[in-house]
Amino acid sequence: MTAKSVGIVVFPGSNCEYDVAAVLEAIGVKTQFIWHGQRDLEGVSGLILPGGFAHGDYLRPGAIARFSPVMSSVVEFANSGRPVLGICNGFQVLTEAGLLAGALQKNALLKFLCEEVELEVASARSSSTSLAETGQRLRLPINHFEGNYTCDADTLNELESNDQVVLRYVENPNGSMNSIAGICSKERNVVGMMPHPERACDDLLGSVDGLQIFKSFASNL
Asked: Pick the catalytic residue: 36, 55, 144, 196?
């Protein structure tokens, strides 16, 4: 049987792709980098859009990346039901591409945030939280200026009613609606989150809680 592989989509300005690859390889998952200019996703069973500053965050984060050639293939991949995870800037790209509802705006008080936060698993019914327990607490770092999740009232009601909020801040650091830190698609295979789980996968970094996210993702390949 061919080993399953995860494609890590790299945009100009991505800077967390190697961290994500290192964690996945450490838990036994093969990885390959996919440049934003290519369309071929052959041979991958899952996709991760890592953090960084895709295309320099010009216009707004993810707005230009959304038009990269690879994104038409990402949309097709997601619509096939396979797992897709967007982390921080990757979350922003997924909202711009319409694969996830809502948008990310500047943090409350217009402050860049770089700190460890406590999160609650709001739903274990997603491809990236399936091995967690609802109500479980995770400590993960955040590193963003535009991580304040927003959407209209109808969308918020739909997300909450459909159990699509997967992570919630215990103490809201950025003004996000309903303290939302991560959501999933209606089909539950596409997940976006602002925290960086790849930075919390080694005791030397102070937490291994991020492994819960990647092991869940790997279990759904």
From this structure: 196
Mark whether 36 is an active-site residue.
no
Which residue range is the domain that position 24 belongs to? 5-219
Cβ burial, residue 69 (10 Å; 0-12/13-18/19+): exposed
Number of structural domains the chain divides into: 1
Average model confidence (pLDDT) across the chain: 96
- Provide the whole-model pTM: 0.96
CA neighbours closer than 13 Å in the CB half-sphere of residue 48: 35
Q: Active-site residue 96, yes or no?
A: no
* Burial class of residue 43 in the structure, from the number of CB atoms within 10 Å of its CB (0-12 exposed, 13-18 middle, 19+ buried): exposed
pLDDT at 1: 34
Name the catalytic one among 17, 36, 88, 184: 88
Here the CATH number for the domain that contains residue 197 is: 3.40.50.880
pLDDT at 179 over 60: yes
Annotated active-site residue 184? The verdict is: no
